[in-house]
Amino acid sequence: MWxxxxxxxxxxxRRHCDLISEAVCVRQLCSSSSEFTDGSYDGxxxxxxxTTPTQKALLAVGSGVAALQDPxxxxxxAVLGETTGHMALVNLRDRMRNxxxxxxxxxxxxxxxxxxxxxxxxxxxxxxxxxREYLRFLEDNHVTPDSRADVKFVDNEELAYVMQRYRxxxxxxxxxxxxxxxxxxxxxxxxxxxxxxxxxxxxxGALLGPLRLNTSRxxxxxxxxxxxxxxxxxxxxxxxxxxxxxxxxxSVEELRQELNIDPPPVIPSASKKRST
Amino acid sequence: MAASVRLLVRRVTRLSHGHVTVCPSxPSxPSxxxxxxxxxxxxxxxxxxxxxxxxxxPEAEKAKRVxxxxxxxxxxxxxxxxxxxxGIHRLWKDTLLHVMNPQPGARLLDVAGGTGDIAxxxxxxxxxxxxxxxxxxxxxxxxxxxxxxSDVYAAREGGEDGPxxxxxxxxxxxxxxxxxGKQKADSMDMSAGLSWVVGDAExxxxxxxxxxxxxxxxxxxxxxxxxxxxxxxxxxxxxxxxFMCLEFSKVRDPVLARLYDTYSFKIIxxxxxxxxxxxxxxxxxxxxxxxxxxQEEFKRMIEDTGxxxxxxxxxxxxxxxxxxxxKL
Lengths: 276, 328
Fold this sequence. Notes:
The complex is a heterodimer. By secondary structure, chain A is mainly α. Chain A has one domain. In chain A, 62% of the residues lie in helices and 0% in strands. Chain A is globular, with a radius of gyration of 23 Å. By secondary structure, chain B is of the alpha/beta class. Chain B starts with a helix and ends with a strand. Helices cover 50% and strands 18% of the residues of chain B. Chain B: It comes from Scophthalmus maximus (Turbot). Chain B: One of its GO terms (biological process) is methylation. Chain B: GO terms for molecular function: 2-methoxy-6-polyprenyl-1,4-benzoquinol methyltransferase activity. Chain B: Belongs to the class I-like SAM-binding methyltransferase superfamily. MenG/UbiE family. Chain B: Pathway: Cofactor biosynthesis; ubiquinone biosynthesis.
């Protein structure tokens, strides 16, 4: 008699164990840590970490505080951008889709990496061409296109690509706008990006960046550089919709005209201290 | 349910077709997983697998990956401990010392001791014990006659062996963690009586019967072969020596367990990302806690190794368990 009573309990406990082991099995099947494998990964793209809305909120707050405390923590700035940028990314993606060149980018998914750039060919281009100026910018400021963090917390594969493209285009924007990587140059680019993309992270950077500038630079920012950056941000074509990789030979002036960007009113002198 | 049935079926068909696949060498993926990935993945069919958090990896891989995790987190390890446990880890470690109650002259081996928390507490405890002893001796000497006092001084100067100095050896497989510990010791000016040794818990670089106390705090769950680590502990302890292990364990109360799970899986990786910039390492750490045997099973493992009087205390409702056993 006891056996008959015990049987349903046994079945229940076995089912519970099955559920747990199934959870572990499924996790085993699709888990990874991206630094070790490329073949398979948890989530929608390599490096994707799925998060709940609560986790995103916590990440946004935490990364915001961390980035304010230590602006050199680029990973925190990146996380802040990813967790707060959903609406702006959708907007950007739609603008890209509506532009023929942007649509090509969304389908072909080019990545700007040292491995994909033909540096010797770019160095042989004439001065004033976009490729040559970009290379000069990289050398002068000792930066490399590979230093951009991968996108982790965007829960849509296409939007994650848009975010990644935005990060990779940032250096190209410096070249297009003629801004160095000192604080003033960075703030100017941030103002341009905030007007262009509407990403909350850019807006926050645009608001808080000036706090770290001295008075004379603040003056330059508010009188000439800032308004120019904002104006051009609004009037320019969507900068993410340009297939830069096919335009290295084009001259910077011509590219600026095509994008509807005016040349900068004043170029802040690149100080010895490189700040990004 | 259906997923696990599918897994079983696939495993059976793979075995039956003699499907031999080899995983790409180097920083390769878990072999248990790539057999189901299309095309280019091959697994040695006789590779022993173990768990790395909720993943399955070849045993040879696990040590490397654990090393990488702790290399990444070493600089922020103490800050993260305070943040994740809201400072409670300090109470756990203090409890370990109180239960240990070491006497002056004891020799401690702290395995997986990394940043040295246990070793520092040990030396502090010994120092305060010694102070207490000295005060006790001084008090008892208040009513002595002059002759007795001079006898005591003579005996002290006579080259009688002073009390044996306590030594603490911190052993860890990870050089980064030891580096952080050494920096802490230098900044706190506590380097006297401390040694820092690189070593593997499964194969300790010490002779037999060297230590009075062996501790391992929050480290043994990262070892690939826990039974080997326990064997080594038995080997290096003197007869009468004590084995003590502080480790995360199973929470019995279902409400607390639910809260603890939510906190572990949802909040801790976020903290890891914000403070240390490393989500994945902290996800591994919370997963590895779930993979560790519970209180009773670990107690049995310790008894099987050959320790006696094995007991455990649950701290914070079972979040942490302190296991202790003696070598006789």
